[in-house]
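Researcher: Please predict.
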Amino acid sequence: MSYSLVRGSIPLLVSMPHVGTEIPPELRDAYVPRALEVEDTDWHLDRLYDFLGRMGASVLRPRLSRYVIDLNRPPDDAPMYPGASNTELCPTRFFNGEPLYLPGLQPGPQERLRRRETYWRPYHRALETELQRLRGLHGRVLLWDAHSIRSRIPWLFEGRLPDLNLGTAGGSSASPAIEQALLAACDPWSDISHVLNGRFKGGYITRHYGAPAGGVYAVQLEMAQSLYMNEEPPFALDPERAQAIRPVLRALVRAALQACEAQDG
């Protein structure tokens, strides 16, 4: 199976669509050698969010690298951020804009379709089914889409990214109460910068599944990797910094969950 799903008991599903690191053996020879290091992975999120099991949350994770399939892009491959550099459903470039594939070996239409049906579709079927299960049990559910990224990537954005980039698709995927709870939860950590609906407003998962009128509230957190790790190979976790950021993540998730549970309906 190309993903793992831990089913929890509370109205919280955490999706980590870019933590996978595997590239199938039959595809590896098409990539430039550097791609096999999967540098654009959302590194170490499992370890940072290790409190989710104790909370009783559902957690969905893929095995495969985003270099094979980007699970946070729409199935028709429409750009998520028009006017900016965008990665694709089957990415062909590193985050610095350089090619992922050897000349002439990037996936064609049939291969992109195969990957979508083989890898993308099952992940989203599992995500939707789990949301429906939790919504049926609790009347409402919070979908937390967990991400991280290097703090400086000129091809994707100017300057240095804020530490915590919260996205609710411009307010359409979550209620104002959840947004306010998230911002309030950031206040105690004045040394950690944050923004709501800045450069990263939420990808396909947040935008597609967030439906406040239907009792599904979706939030994306894109976190700067400088908060907890070395951003250069071999991308090692910094235990001291990681330990410092865990309470922040826990506070954010709990604040959003409490606001979700307090919603009418």
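Model: The helical segments are 25-28, 45-48, 52-55, 109-138, 176-186, 204-209, 239-261.
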